[in-house]
Amino acid sequence: TEDAYTYGGSISQALVDLARERREAVMTKLPGKPPKSRRRGAPRRSEESAICAPLFSSEQLNGILYLTSDKPKRPFSQKDLALVNVISDIAGMAIERHTFLSFNVKNERLFATGETARSLSHYIKNILFGFDGALNLLKTSCDTRNVDLARECWDILKIHHRKMGNVVLDFLNFATDLKPRFVKYDVHTLI
After folding, report:
1. Residue 162: band (very low, low, confident or very high) from pLDDT cuts 50, 70, 90
2. Distance from the CA of 182 to the CA of which of 18, 72, 95, 171 falls in 20 to 30 A?
3. Residue 52's beta-bridge partner residues?
4. Is the distance from CB of 30 to CB of 89 less than 8 angstroms?
5. Is the pTM of the predicted complex or chain greater than 0.70?
6. By the 8 A CB rule, do 44 and 34 touch?
7. Crossing angle, helix 78-144 and helix 147-175, to 10 degrees?
8. Which tens digits make up the pLDDT trace of 11-30?
9. Contact 64, 4 (CB under 8 A)
10. Phi, psi at residue 13, to the nearest 5°?
11. Is-contact 29 50, C-beta < 8 A?
12. 37-92 per-position pLDDT tens digit
């Protein structure tokens, strides 16, 4: 495949296609690299043994495991094929599990963000209603020239201004990377 990592040799596309089609590990012998120095009577090429296993999770192909052995005296066996088949099944399930966990973590974060936004919007809405009520009372006190009502409105406005300021400061503190500040204390003075 185009994305395949090549180990310096070649990958048999036919073997990859067969493994995909069968949905299990397959094994074959491939022509290997030519020897570095040719002695008289030496074979022109050694044979490589190759195993290709698809990494499936449910119905989706997540990758291909491709193994080669260029040792002619130790080609892959049926036991190797069975082992790689088990490993590829486990790897496919692990990839699927990781994908599900990542999806769930992302959804949980999104849900938590939505819940936080909902809670904050209600809190901020209540502060704004307090401002609205105080401003309406202030307008009434100005229209009627009632100084006592104006002072009462002023106190209400200060309270809601402080609440809004605390919300903004909490946002800023939440967004800031705080580093712990270490201070030496004598434990006996705390007791």
Report:
1. very high
2. 171
3. 26, 66
4. no
5. no
6. yes
7. 160
8. 788 888 888 888 888 888 76
9. yes
10. -65, -35
11. yes
12. 545 544 444 557 888 999 888 778 888 888 888 776 788 888 988 999 999 988 88
Q: What is the maximum span of the chain, computed from C-alpha positions, in angstroms?
A: 118
Q: How far apart are CA 153 and CA 76, in angstroms?
A: 87
Whether the Cβ atoms of residue 76 and residue 69 lie closer than 8 Å to each other: yes
In this structure, what DSSP letter does residue 151 have?
H
Owner of token pair 């070649």: 10
- The position carrying tokens 């105080």 is 134
CB 33 within 8 A of CB 9: yes
Inter-residue long-range contacts of 1-8, CB under 8 Å, 24+ positions, other chains counted: 1/64, 4/64, 4/66, 7/68
CA distance 17 to 108: 38
Structure tokens at 29: 């012998």
**Residue 2 CA: distances (Å) to CA of 31, 51, 52, 87:** 21, 19, 16, 24
The residue type of 180 is P
> In terms of Cα–Cα distance, which of 64, 65, 66, 56 is closest to 99?
56
Per-position DSSP letters for 82-111, written without gaps between them: HHHHHHHHHHHHHHHHHHHHHHHHHHHHHH
Cβ 27 vs Cβ 51: under 8 Å? yes
